[in-house]
Amino acid sequence: MGELRKTPLAIAVFLLVLSVAVDLGGARVIAEFIPSGDGPLAAIEAELAEMDEDQAESLRSEVEGLRPDSGNPGIALPTLAMLDGLLLLTVALMALGKLSGDRISGMVHGPATFLVSLILVIVAIVVLIVSIALLLQMLALLLAPPFGTLAYLGLFGFFARGAASIALSVSMGLKLGAAVALVVAQPKILASKGLILITATALVAGVLTNFLHGFVPIVLVSVTDAVAAILVCILTLIWSVVLLIGSIPSIVKALTP
Questions:
Q1: Domain count along the chain
Q2: Which of 25, 147, 150, 174 sits in a 20 to 30 Å window from 140, CA-based?
Q3: pLDDT tens digit string along 114-133?
Q4: Are 183 and 190 in contact (CB under 8 A)?
């Protein structure tokens, strides 16, 4: 593919590490400084207003006690870290080949890809099951008025949409920066269909998550966030299996005298 420039390649790896870090914890940090708004409280009050006054009064304090975390950024963003992690793995192994040479890279590439992909397959399946269970729980509560709906609003109605949006934007900006750095490192990298496709998948997953967070009222964002997490898990599973299978010939080659 030609000579790779070390500095832009190192920058690309660094930006992707930051992107994964933002996925994992950026939204929760940002949520500490951005209020989630009173949308859920207004919805709770609207539900209580339709009930008997004595019953509503007894439930009001109970529902307020259900509100565990008004800065909740959801599960879709941490789930994105798996997909971004696969992109980071691909670029990091490319950087390793540049720094250590083809022989060592050939010995490490296959086993590392196989091991990380296998771990991510297992993690993605677990997260997928948890996300589906959480989605079903939220829907069951939401569709069981008045008490179920109130419980849903108290438990899941408070979503840090602003913080999640900022974190998603930062993460996507870092990935775009990494893509530019890779092109600077080696323009011919645009011919690498696998790298282009996994980069595009990671970016599309971020756009899709942001869309699902933004097109519904604030009290329903937890539901669409769980949907986004499910979709990201499926994309991660697909890519993990592809990389897992693709790593087998490299392992066989490394083991063959």
A1: 1
A2: 25
A3: 899 999 999 999 999 999 99
A4: yes
